[in-house]
């Protein structure tokens, strides 16, 4: 069990790790290029036709 005086440090470190992961995900998304149109209905039709 963690000692009470180390728990806030652990929570802070976990939050910082999550924040850094979020920031990196946003950077990766921005660098992936422009978004493309996605036709969900066409995708579902294709999946139904392919998979039955």
Key terms:
52 residues; 71% helix; mainly alpha
Description:
The chain is mostly helical and 52 residues long. The protein is built from 2 helices and no strands. The relative contact order is 0.07. It is elongated and about 60 Å long. The chain has helices at 7-31, 40-51.
Low-confidence stretches: none
Radius of gyration: 21 Å
For the termini, the CA-CA separation is 52 Å
Strand content: under 5%
Mind sketching the topology for me?
Blueprint: H1 7-31, H2 40-51
Quick summary:
Helices cover 71% and strands 0% of the residues.
């Amino acid at each position: 069990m963690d000692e009470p005086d180390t728990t806030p440090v652990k929570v802070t470190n976990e939050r910082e790790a999550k924040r850094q992961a979020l920031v990196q995900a946003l950077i990766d998304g921005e660098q992936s290029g422009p978004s493309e149109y996605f036709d969900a209905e066409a995708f579902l039709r294709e999946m139904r036709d392919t998979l039955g």
